[in-house]
Amino acid sequence: MAKKPRKQQPGGTPATVALTGAGITFTVHSYEHDPSSPSYGEEAATALGVSADRVFKTLVADVDGDLVVAVVPVAGSLDLKALAAAVNGKRAAMADPAAAERTTGYVRGGISPLGQRKRLRTVLDASAGSHATICVSAGRRGLEVELSPTDLATLTEATLAPIGRA
Question: Considering only CA atoms, which of 76, 32, 34 is closest in space to residue 165?
C-alpha cells in the first residue's frame, strides 16, 4: 500500500503550526541553506548570528529499541549513555536516518522536536534552561524557530537532563 503524501500545512511547517495552535510565542528565522555545509546546526548559528550554545540540534536515537528525540546544543555532541539513563534505558545508539525521517515526517537536517508525525519521547539538554530563548529547527533546512526552553519542554513533554557534551 502506498503512503499518502504529507500535505503542506497552511501557514507554515507542522512545527510552526503546532506552536501557533498551542498559543506559544515564537519567532521564525530563515536563511539560505548551503547544501555543502558540513553541519546544519553550525550553519544555522552562523547564518543567524546566534551563539552555537543557543542553537539546539534535534537528534533521533534508538534506546533499547524505541526511538527517542534528543535536543542538544550544536556547540557540542550527544552523550548516548546520558540519554539512555535519562529515559531509564540501558543502551542508546543513533537511529537509522531513514527511520528517523519516516517516523518524524521531517528530512535529516530539518528534523524538528515539534510537530512530528509520531510524537516521540523527548529529552532536552539541561543547559537550555540557562537561556531566555533557544533556536531549534522549524521543520526544514534553512528555517529555525526561537522560543523559550520552558515552552519547548512543555509542548514536547520533554525530560530535562544533562545529555550534551561540550
Answer: 76
CA atoms of 17 and 13, how far apart (whole Å): 6
Q: How do 121-125 and 66-73 pair as beta strands?
A: parallel
Cell of 131: 537561556
Report yes or no: 128 and 134 within 8 Å, Cβ to Cβ: yes
Contact assessment for residue 101 and residue 112, using Cβ atoms and an 8 Å cutoff: no
Cell numbers representing residue 138 in the block:
522549524
User: What's the pLDDT tens digit per position in 9-66?
Assistant: 445 899 999 999 999 999 999 988 888 787 888 888 888 899 999 999 999 999 999 9
Alpha-carbon span 46 to 124, nearest angstrom: 22
pTM of the model: 0.89
The mean per-residue pLDDT over the stretch 141-147 comes to 94
Q: Which residues pair with 123 in a beta bridge?
A: 70, 159
Residue 5 CA to residue 71 CA, distance in Å, equals 27
CA dist 50 and 54 (Å) reads 7
